[in-house]
Amino acid sequence: MEKNLENILNARNIKPTAMRTLVLQILLDQNSAISLPELEQKFYKADKSTIYRTLKTFLNHRLIHSIEDGTGSLRYAVCKESCNCEPEQLHVHFLCNNCNSTFCLLNSPIPIIELPKGFKQTSSNFVIKGVCLACSK
Ligand SMILES: [Zn+2]
Ligand SMILES: [Zn+2]
């Protein structure tokens, strides 16, 4: 498993460190996206700025993507191996109003919107809100 995490980091040109490997492990263990405060809570003792810098590095190397789900803090989730966060690769997210979890809907790409002449897309954010499977049972 350790080896596998290192491979994932190397594939994104991120030098594996103990901290990066640990943060990646935590991110992969989540079944929903996680915010910085939520991530910090998983650490008994770790410098908050180190955790933040680790996320920044992951973002810059497209290992993870950030999600504005309207809850106030950005949430983060690991990208698919082939993902470079290009507009045509972005997917819809789902925020559960009950458990406040945000899920990646990897099989639901964000539709490409035809923009007015001269407009250029740099990012997009598509969040559906409702009740997740666990909460609707
Ligand atoms: Zn839920
Ligand atoms: Zn996502």
| Helix content class | 25-40%
Radius of gyration using CA atoms only: 16 Å
**Biggest β-sheet, characterized?**
3 strands, antiparallel
- CATH C-level class: Mainly Alpha
- Unreliably modeled segments: none
| Number of alpha- plus pi-helical segments | 5
What structural category characterises the helix and strand content? alpha+beta
At the fourth level of CATH, the homologous superfamily is: Winged helix-like DNA-binding domain superfamily/Winged helix DNA-binding domain
What string, H for helix and E for strand, traces the elements in order? Answer: HHEHHEEEEEH
Ions, cofactors, ligands: which are bound?
zinc ion
> What CATH architecture would you give?
Orthogonal Bundle
- With strands numbered from the N-terminus, the spatial order across the biggest sheet is 1-3-2
Number of domains: 1
Mean pLDDT: 92
Number of strands: 6
Indicate the topology.
Layout: H1 2-11, H2 18-29, E1 34-35, H3 36-40, H4 48-60, E2 64-67, E3 75-78, E4 91-96, E5 102-109, E6 127-130, H5 133-136
Parallel strand pairs: 4-6
Antiparallel strand pairs: 1-3, 2-3, 4-5
Bound molecules: zinc ion (2 copies).
How would you characterize this protein structure?
This protein is α+β, with helices and mostly antiparallel strands and 137 residues long. It has one domain: Arc Repressor Mutant, subunit A (Orthogonal Bundle). It has five helices and six strands. It has helices spanning 2-11, 18-29, 36-40, 48-60, 133-136, and strands at residues 34-35, 64-67, 75-78, 91-96, 102-109, 127-130. A three-stranded antiparallel β-sheet has the order 1-3-2. The radius of gyration is 16 Å and the shape is globular. It starts with a helix and ends with a helix. The mean pLDDT is 92. The chain binds zinc ion (ZN) (2 copies). Residues 96, 98-99, 101, 132, 134-135 line the site of one zinc ion. One zinc ion binds next to helix 5.
